[in-house]
Every structure is written in C-alpha cells, then in structure tokens.
C-alpha cells in the first residue's frame, strides 16, 4: 500500500480559510457597522447614490424651489414659466466637442420655453412624489403588517381581508381617478394619494416577518419581564425587520416614479400650470419626429432615477442579508491559510499493484513494509471461537 503526502489544501481547508477571512473582517464590529461596510463595498449602489444625489442637487438648485407659494430662486438664468426668444431654431445649443452648453443646452419647445428649466422642474415634482409615496406607503404598510402579524387570529384576518380588497383594485385606476381630481392641488398631495393605496405589498412582507419573529425566545423574554405589546412590537421585533423594510421601500419608490410618470403622461397626474417628467413627454408627443430632443431628456431622467433607486435597493438587500457573502480572492485565502498554521497532510491510501500480495478468501491482501494499518476482511461473529483473527505473519 502506497502512502503519499500532498500539501495542496482540500475543500475543508478552503472553507476554514473563508470563515477565517470573514471573521477577521467583522471582528469587533456592530451589526450596523457590518451593514454599512457591506453596502459601501457594493459598487453599483455607491455609483447610483452619487448619480442620484447629483440629479437631485441639480434639479433643486438650478431653477429654484416653488412650494405652497414660497419661491426660492436658483442659479439658472431661466425659469420653467419664462418664454425667451428662440435661439438656434429651438435646437439644443450644447455640444460635446468642444464642450459648451450655450443658452439652451436641452433646446426649446415650440413656444420657446427652455427645456432644461422645464425638465428640472419636472424632476423636482417626480422626485417629490417618489419620496412622499415611499414614506406614506412604508408607514401604513409597516403599521398594518406589524399589528396583523403580532396579534394574529381575528385581527390578522380582518386586516388581511382589507388588504386583499385594496389589492384587487388596480393601482393605476385609483391613481387616475384621484389624480385627475386632486392633481391640480400639487404633486405633494398626489404623492399622498398614491401612497395611501401602495402599501399592500409592504404590509404582507412585514406581516410574514412578524409571524416568524413573535415566536422567538427574545419576545418570550420580553413578555415575561412585563413589557407591553407596543414596546415589544416597536422596540424588540421591528428592529429585526429593518432590512426587509428598507429594501422594499426603495423598490416601492422606484415603482412610484414610474407610476407618476404614467399617470402624468395619460393626463391624470400633475396638472398645468405645473409639470412633471411624464407630463413633458405627453405635451410634446406630437413632435417626436421633428424635435426628438423634447423626449430624450425627460425620458433619460426617468430611467436614470428609477435605475439608481433600484441599484440602491439591490445594495441594501445584499448588505442586510447575512447569506450574501463575498467570495475572497485566492491570495486572501492563501494568506489566511498561512496565518492559521500548516496544512494538514493528506494521506494517499491507494493500494499499489506493485507490492507483493496474498489472496485470502478470494480477496487480495497487500503485504509490504509500508503497510500502515491492517483490516480483517472476514466478517466478525462475536462469541464464535472458530473465528480467529487472521495472522498477518501467515
């Protein structure tokens, strides 16, 4: 029997190296610090945060803010309501080489309004609706889902049947009816209306998490210590559902901006004299073949905002999910293996056909000076005096 020692690490050694690397990376860190570290390592999420922050900053500082009669001017020379004289026949004055913006980098519409100012105002309104829908829908979804999941029984049945009724009504139909009636009152109120009917998915997810967490030991310990139900819900169980709440809130916000754009495109969203990204596309749909730049910019901002929010949600999901692990590189694994000590040698017990052998009961038994262990191939019968161990010397 041949015995050979190999120095290559096996599967168990690689697993130990991966565990060692992960433990060293998270050693001495709290759960919040671990989540932040994982999120900051997600390149797509970080790039999306930078792009989204740039879009929001550009929109709210360029043309200023006008909300409930309060007007704060911006640094751009035109507002979305001004009609300056046409320049360059209304075509965009921005060029990439040499890089210059001109007076109307996004061009002008058929009446002469500056498209850059109009798109920035539309971005403000769409972002406002997106944030308000996310906050309102998350609040109602978390409260209803938490109460239904914690108390269960009759309370759960009543709240979930009410949720099922809201789900059966198409959200775009509700938004069209209420948006047409209340859209002229401003984008903020439109966001509240949409948020009041967009909480159903959040409520179901939170309910499922509460049904699982309410049976855990720390909840029983809180009950035994005399904690009230409100404290158990909001101080003990709810912090353990933050991951799923944050992730689904971002996905809800991404869907909200698409819904608002669709409603405004159909004429049921933000009403004149205000505007939004969907309304800009709707107003200029007849000029698609003659002035396509009127569609490029609002469509580009809709896609950019929705993608950024989705990528941020993806990064948050990976950060909060403990099962999402980053595979270490080969260099990091080798370094961890050297730090953990020498590798365990692997013994090759493959029999060699070159060694002298004898045959016992039809099976080959190898006898050589390099035999490490011996195994009797005959079945054992305890208590039978006729079954004697095989003597290797024979």
UniProtKB/TrEMBL annotation:
PROSITE patterns: ABC_TM1 (PS50928). Keywords: Cell inner membrane, Cell membrane, Membrane, Peptide transport, Protein transport, Transmembrane, Transmembrane helix, Transport. CDD domains: TM_PBP2 (cd06261). InterPro entries: BP-dependent_transpt_permease, MetI-like, MetI-like_sf, OppC_N. The chain crosses the membrane at residues 46-70, 127-150, 162-182, 237-259, 294-316. It comes from the Bacteria. One of its GO terms (cellular component) is plasma membrane. Residues 373-394 are annotated as: Disordered. One of its GO terms (biological process) is protein transport. Residues 373-384 have a biased composition (Basic and acidic residues). It is a multi-pass membrane protein. SUPFAM superfamilies: MetI-like. Residues 123-313 form the ABC transmembrane type-1 domain. It is found in: Cell inner membrane; Cell membrane. Belongs to the binding-protein-dependent transport system permease family. OppBC subfamily. This is Oligopeptide transport system permease protein OppC. It comes from Microbacterium kyungheense. The lineage of its organism: Bacteria, Bacillati, Actinomycetota, Actinomycetes, Micrococcales.
């Amino acid at each position: 029997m041949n015995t050979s020692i190999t120095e290559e690490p096996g599967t168990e050694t690689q697993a130990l190296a991966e565990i060692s690397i992960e433990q060293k990376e998270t050693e001495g860190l709290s759960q919040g610090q671990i989540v932040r570290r994982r999120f900051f390592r997600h390149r797509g999420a970080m790039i999306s945060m930078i792009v989204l922050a740039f879009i929001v900053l550009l929109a709210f500082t360029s043309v200023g803010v006008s909300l409930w009669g309060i007007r704060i001017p911006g640094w751009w020379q035109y507002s979305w309501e001004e009609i300056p004289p046409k320049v360059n026949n209304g075509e965009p004055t921005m060029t990439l080489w040499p890089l210059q913006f001109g007076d109307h980098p996004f061009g002008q519409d058929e009446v002469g309004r500056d498209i850059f100012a109009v798109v920035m105002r539309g971005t403000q309104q769409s972002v406002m609706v997106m944030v308000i829908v996310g906050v309102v829908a998350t609040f109602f979804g978390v409260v209803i889902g938490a109460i239904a999941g914690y108390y269960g029984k009759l309370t759960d049945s009543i709240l979930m049947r009410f949720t099922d009724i809201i789900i059966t009504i198409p959200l775009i139909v509700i938004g069209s009816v209420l948006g047409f009636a209340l859209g002229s009152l401003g984008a903020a109120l439109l966001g509240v209306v949409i948020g009041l009917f967009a909480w159903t998915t959040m409520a179901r997810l939170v309910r499922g998490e509460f049904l699982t967490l309410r049976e855990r030991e720390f909840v029983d310990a809180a009950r035994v210590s005399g904690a009230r139900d409100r404290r158990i819900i909001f101080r003990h169980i709810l912090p353990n559902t933050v991951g799923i709440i944050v992730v689904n809130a971002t996905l809800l916000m991404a869907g909200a901006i698409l819904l608002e754009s669709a409603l405004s495109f159909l004429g049921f969203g933000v009403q004149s004299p205000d505007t939004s990204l969907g309304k800009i596309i709707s107003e200029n749909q007849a000029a698609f073949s003659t002035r396509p730049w009127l569609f490029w910019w609002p469509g580009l901002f809709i896609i950019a905002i929705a993608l950024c929010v989705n990528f941020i949600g993806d990064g948050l999901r990976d950060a909060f999910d403990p099962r999402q692990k980053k595979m270490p590189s080969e260099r990091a694994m080798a370094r961890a293996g050297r730090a953990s000590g020498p590798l365990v040698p692997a013994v090759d017990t493959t029999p060699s056909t070159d060694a002298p052998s004898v045959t016992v009961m039809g099976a080959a038994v190898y006898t050589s000076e390099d035999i490490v262990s011996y195994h009797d191939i005959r079945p054992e019968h305890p208590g039978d005096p006729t079954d004697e161990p095989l003597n290797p010397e024979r």
